């Protein structure tokens, strides 16, 4: 049994369904990210856990207690918002201590707890400042401290880094993860940034159009995406469409060239259209060695990205991108040049559904 | 460019003259109580008049009551509309504008018809209940100003997120309203309060027709029977109104400075 259990969750608005058939068990101390594009239902799901939205159906349990209809102020769920939502009329210390004051904790308990939280977010001396005197990154750290001060059972973060610039985003991301590990607090993190989700999470829930597409560890989501959507949303990926030639061997024909996938085609029928996906880092310009898949094509585009050179090779209808490390001693191929690319058979990701899905 | 600047200054000068010349005339006239010399005698007479004290105190108490009741009515209403019923905003704005469209005399005759001593709710039967009725009528009169001031203040903050942040920290509606929302619209509420004060302190029609000893009817009484004192009272009333306006400006500027510091 998970600390947070969500079963059959559904949210319908007047003209649309925002979330449906949402099932998730989150273990104590786990860090789970909801990842997906805008409008996929991730924030709505988070808001239902917080109690700001009432589900149309389904249940939410924390430690076995049904909290589905409980008001937000009686759930003991901490929330960090994208816009920080610090109370402008209160100092940093008052903001952090607000939840404790509301809970009528004694002043002798509040002051040390507030200081403990400020130490945790590495802003020990800023207790007397007002939110408008802080930078965006500092404000978000205070918002995190405020949410943690009440010792919530679950911490919810709604795109907390979206309003910050890139450098601060990365450092604060690491801080959030370090604090979460230190406190062992069960955390749900909403983001549309795949890098954030991959680097922070124990598990990722990829969502699309209000439904869960795939739940898995960052390793599983990145390396073994189950659907075309997950494959294309998480990381850079080339999707090749072809016809199954021999399901037993895992053979599929793409633009007249046969490639082999070690798994995923067992249930397929010969002649069926299927899509396979390749990550750019596993495709290489063929040097004549190895037993993997090989395909001949023409260089369509070469992008110099600094330490990496991304080359796009076209076979016909399909194309793949491949990454090579920049090497000043070796000139990359030129557009129009005929090349052979290779990739391991076990790196071919067979996607669910037909190629046109 | 220079010609345009000069033109602007000329228009402003004309406006200032249009506004200040009658005021200066009134002020100058109020100082002529003693023949041949300027003095503040008219002011002294007014300020030592027991009726002035009584009516001014009455109107001040009524204005403060109106402000308190107005805040209690308007802040939660505007907050709830912003938070949960934004679709009702046009309707509420229309209702709050009605006192500007309907003349005070029409309103007060309506009150007298509904709340007269032989009605189901005879609020005009005793002096205290009539005071209460007058206070409610002032709340109505000040509604367009109070509602707009508070609504503008609420629109300037992220009401929904602040509410949700407070809720997630365990706060109930009362705590949210008193500890989170009200302090953040304080300047707007004070603006509304000063406007209300300025309206109530000189209001004549309702107080007169409800026969209450307010400052407005006193101004009218003095104006009808004395020469120099009405001018002195007019200048004093202007000073009170300007004092209120200056306070609104000061508070507004302070909040702008704070907001600028946030960016």
Structural overview:
The complex is a heterodimer of chains A (357) and B (263). Chain A is an alpha+beta fold and 357 residues long. In chain A, 24% of the residues lie in helices and 33% in strands. The radius of gyration of chain A is 25 Å and the shape is elongated. The two termini of chain A are 35 Å apart. Chain B is mostly helical and 263 residues long. The chains are: A alpha+beta (357), B mainly alpha (263). At the A-B interface, strand 6, helix 2 and helix 4 of A face helix 7, helix 8 and helix 12 of B.
Keywords:
heterodimer, A: 357 residues, alpha+beta, 6-stranded mixed β-sheet, 5-stranded antiparallel β-sheet, 8 helices, elongated, B: 263 residues, mainly alpha, 12 helices, 81% helix, globular
Specify which chain pair forms the largest interface: A-B, 31 and 23 residues
Broad structural category of chain A: alpha+beta
Detail the poorly predicted runs of chain B. 259-263
The helix count of chain B comes to: 12
Number of helices of chain A: 8
Q: What is the 3D form of chain A? A: elongated
Brief characterization of the structure:
With 357 residues, chain A is α+β, with helices and mostly antiparallel strands.
Topology overview:
The complex is a heterodimer of chains A (357) and B (263).
Chain A: E1 4-12, E2 17-26, E3 31-35, H1 42-50, E4 57-62, E5 65-66, E6 77-80, H2 92-102, H3 107-120, H4 136-149, E7 154-158, H5 166-183, E8 186-191, H6 194-200, E9 203-208, E10 211-216, H7 218-223, H8 228-233, E11 238-246, E12 251-254, E13 257-260, E14 273-278, E15 284-285, E16 293-304, E17 308-314, E18 319-325, E19 338-343, E20 349-350
Parallel strand pairs in A: 3-8, 3-9, 6-7, 7-8
Antiparallel strand pairs in A: 1-2, 1-4, 4-5, 9-10, 11-12, 11-14, 12-13, 14-20, 15-19, 16-17, 16-19, 17-18
Helix pairs in contact in A: 2-3, 2-4, 3-4
Chain B: H1 2-30, H2 41-48, H3 50-83, H4 89-101, H5 104-115, H6 127-155, H7 159-168, H8 173-184, H9 186-202, H10 205-209, H11 215-225, H12 229-262
Helix pairs in contact in B: 1-12, 2-12, 3-6, 3-9, 4-6, 6-9, 7-8, 9-12, 11-12
């Amino acid at each position: 049994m998970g600390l947070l259990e969500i079963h059959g969750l559904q949210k319908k608005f007047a003209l649309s369904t925002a979330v449906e058939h949402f099932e998730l068990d989150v273990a104590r101390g786990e860090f789970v990210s909801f990842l997906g594009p805008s409008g996929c239902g991730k924030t709505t799901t988070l808001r239902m856990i917080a109690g700001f939205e009432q589900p149309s159906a389904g249940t939410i349990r924390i430690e076995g207690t049904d909290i589905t209809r409980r008001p937000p102020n009686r759930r003991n769920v901490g929330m960090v918002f994208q816009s920080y939502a610090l109370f402008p009329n209160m100092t940093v210390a008052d903001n952090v201590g607000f939840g404790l004051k509301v809970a009528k904790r004694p002043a002798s308990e509040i002051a040390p707890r507030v200081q403990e939280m400020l130490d945790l977010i590495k802003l020990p001396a800023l207790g007397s400042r007002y939110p408008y005197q802080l930078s965006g990154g500092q404000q978000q750290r205070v918002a995190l401290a405020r949410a943690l001060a009440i010792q919530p059972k679950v911490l919810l973060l709604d795109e907390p880094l979206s309003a910050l610039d890139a450098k601060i985003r990365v450092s604060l991301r690491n801080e959030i993860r370090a604090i979460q590990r230190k406190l062992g607090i069960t955390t749900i993190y909403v983001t549309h940034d795949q890098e954030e989700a991959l680097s922070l999470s124990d598990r990722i829930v990829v969502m699309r159009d209000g439904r869960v597409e795939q739940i898995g560890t960052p390793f599983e989501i990145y390396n073994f995406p189950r659907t075309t959507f997950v494959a294309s949303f998480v990381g850079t990926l080339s999707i090749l469409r072809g016809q199954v030639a021999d399901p037993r061997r895992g053979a599929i024909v793409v633009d007249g060239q046969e490639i082999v996938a070690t798994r995923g085609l067992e249930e397929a029928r010969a002649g069926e259209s299927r899509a396979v996906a390749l990550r750019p880092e596993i495709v290489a310009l063929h040097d004549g060695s190895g037993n993997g898949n090989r395909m001949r094509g023409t260089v369509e585009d070469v992008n110099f990205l600094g330490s990496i050179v991304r080359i796009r090779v076209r076979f016909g209808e399909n194309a793949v991108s491949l990454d090579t490390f920049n090497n000043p001693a070796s000139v990359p191929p030129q557009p129009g040049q005929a090349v052979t690319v290779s990739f391991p058979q076990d790196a071919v990701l067979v996607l669910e559904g037909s190629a046109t899905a | 460019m220079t010609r345009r600047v000069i033109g602007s200054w000329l228009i402003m000068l004309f406006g200032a003259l249009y506004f200040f010349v009658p005021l200066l005339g009134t002020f100058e006239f109020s100082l002529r109580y003693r023949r041949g010399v300027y003095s503040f005698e008219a002011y002294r007479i007014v300020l030592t008049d027991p009726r002035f004290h009584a009516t001014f105190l009455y109107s001040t108490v009524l204005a403060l009551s109106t402000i308190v009741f107005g805040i209690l009515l308007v802040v939660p209403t505007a907050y709830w509309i912003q938070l949960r019923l934004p679709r009702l905003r046009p309707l509420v704005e229309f209702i709050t504008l009605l006192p500007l469209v309907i003349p005070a005399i029409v309103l007060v005759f309506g009150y007298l018809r509904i709340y007269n001593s032989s009605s189901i709710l005879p609020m005009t039967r005793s002096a205290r209940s009539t005071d209460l009725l007058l206070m409610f009528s002032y709340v109505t009169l000040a509604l367009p100003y109070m509602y707009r001031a508070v609504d503008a203040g609420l629109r300037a903050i992220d009401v929904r997120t602040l509410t949700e942040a407070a809720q997630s920290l365990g706060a109930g509606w009362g705590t949210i309203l008193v500890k989170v929302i009200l302090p953040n619209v304080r300047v707007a509420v004070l603006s509304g309060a000063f406007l209300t004060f300025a309206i109530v302190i000189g209001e004549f029609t309702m107080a007169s027709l409800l026969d209450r000893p307010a400052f407005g009817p006193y101004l009218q009484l003095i104006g009808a029977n004395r020469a120099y004192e009405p001018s002195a009272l007019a200048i004093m009333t202007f000073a009170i109104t300007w004092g209120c306006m200056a306070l609104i400006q000061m508070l507004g500027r302070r909040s702008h400075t704070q907001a600028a510091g946030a960016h």
